[in-house]
Amino acid sequence: MTEPIVRVFPDRASLGYAAAADIAAQLRERLNYQNSVRMVFAAAPSQQETLDALVAEVGIDWTRVTAFQMDDYIGLPQDAPQRFGQWLRRAVFDRVPFKEVHLMRTDGDPEQRAQEYADLLAAEPIDLVCLGIGVNGHIAFNDPPVADFADPAAVKVVELDDTCRQQQVDDGCFPTFDDVPPTALTLTVPRLLDADQLFCVVPGQAKADAVRRTLNDPIGEACPATALRTHRSCVLYLDQDSAGALD
């Protein structure tokens, strides 16, 4: 088992620049010997500085990069601004010329949509994942009650726990708890870990305990982010606030 590389920076801005530089370097390197790159993006305010810096990087042939999203709400209109697909369009998808962008659909039968997205992901290997960690230790929308490190599915329907829904309010994505949809589609833990390289960006004091648990708790679904410690190539980017509970 290879423990994640942990890098700590003074603030969110320097964290974002460093993470973006590493992601960009990996994209350039892979595009030197691969025809294309397939990558998955998390949607959250914690990712904003990194994505802003990433789209400013030069020398990346985005026309050979295919993008996926990590999760999204069920029950919101496809064009609702709170949807993660729409957030990612504003943050990155509409700012560089991707080869393809696969937005996650959650209209109609959610189970059917989950299988359709799983099929898109399975067409070729996923090279890179840019993710974060929730205040309850979730990765994607794999909250502790629904996370399964041996999940047979690649994408599944989940019920969001109260801590996760409250985080969406605290992040400014919804005005009240009741406005946050209770269900979502998410890539599962095994699907995330099947990618070749993970870049995990986790700024902010609100994430300090989740970071501590990620690195120190027993590996298991009680803190889904502990699964990152089983991955062969994961870098964890922290700022002074999110690293505050570490020894």
Automatic annotation (TrEMBL):
Residues 11-231 form the Glucosamine/galactosamine-6-phosphate isomerase domain. One of its GO terms (molecular function) is glucosamine-6-phosphate deaminase activity. It comes from the Bacteria. GO terms for biological process: carbohydrate metabolic process; glucosamine catabolic process; N-acetylglucosamine catabolic process; N-acetylneuraminate catabolic process. It is an enzyme of class 3 (hydrolase). GO terms for cellular component: cytoplasm. Keywords: Carbohydrate metabolism, Hydrolase. Its EC number is 3.5.99.6. This is Glucosamine-6-phosphate deaminase.
